[in-house]
Amino acid sequence: MTPAIPILEARRLTRELPGPVPVTLVRDIDLTVAAGEFVAITGPSGSGKSSLLYLLGLLDTPSSGDVLVDGLPTVGIPDNPLADLRLSRFGFVFQFHFLLPEFSARDNVEIPMRRLGLLGTGEIRDRAEFLLETLGLAEHAHKLPEQMSGGQRQRVAVARALANDPAIILADEPTGNLDTKSAENVFSLFRQLASDQGRAVVVVTHDTELAARADRRIHLVDGRIVP
């Protein structure tokens, strides 16, 4: 049987910041992530965790190496098709929810669908309401971010990340600003997105106890993967 193509792959991925003394953020990273796999990236501050995540999510361009999505190289893809690929295949969750404060929870979830432009107005509304209901936020759909707790805002951010039904979820310290219970709920949600829905989930976290519950843990030191 032919092995399944990884949904996300890094090949000899390196990112350097140019200057009189170049700074290497990540160096020679080889990594594959399968559909349905939950991967945690850990490491000390400054080890390159977020830099690696941004490269994997096509939010930054490597100095050398490549990122493959569904087996297809992405380096060299023009900006507009690359943006469309990010919008359709990736969902992003960050430490700060980055919800637009003047819009309701439902409006925030609708934004990626409106940008992608594949659904009509009614379909967008229905999907946003479905996602919020699925995440236990149906009664908060019309609230502004400031009217919700930190955990609720982060769950809205997860709903927004799922808006375009992405195959890959990338999260950068998504529980960093949450209390223990809210962090546990959000992390359990990522676990379900991988195991129950077959999405590839990659989470950067400093919480080693939570990371230990992932399918696999990638530990970075000085921009390299170490055992």
- Average pLDDT reading: 92
Assembly category: single chain
Major sheet strand order? 6-7-8-3-9-10
Question: Pairing-aware structural class of the strands and helices?
Answer: alpha/beta
Q: How far is the N terminus from the C terminus?
A: 30 Å
Helix count, per DSSP? 7
Residue runs with pLDDT of under 50 for 5 or more positions: none
Helix content: 25-40%
Please, could you describe this protein's structure?
There is one protein chain. Strands 6-7-8-3-9-10 form a six-stranded mixed sheet. Strands 2-1-4-5 form a four-stranded antiparallel sheet, covered by helices on one side. Helix content is 34%, strand content 26%. The mean pLDDT is 92. It is built from seven helices and ten strands. By secondary structure, it is an alpha/beta fold.
Structural features:
227 residues; alpha/beta; 4-stranded antiparallel sheet; 34% helix
Short summary:
The chain is of the alpha/beta class. It contains seven helices and ten strands.
Could you give the topology of this structure?
Elements: E1 8-17, E2 23-33, E3 38-42, H1 49-56, E4 64-69, E5 72-73, H2 79-89, E6 90-94, H3 105-116, H4 121-134, H5 150-161, E7 168-172, H6 180-195, E8 200-204, H7 208-211, E9 216-221, E10 224-226
Parallel strand pairs: 3-8, 3-9, 6-7, 7-8
Antiparallel strand pairs: 1-2, 1-4, 4-5, 9-10
Helix pairs in contact: 3-4, 3-5, 5-6
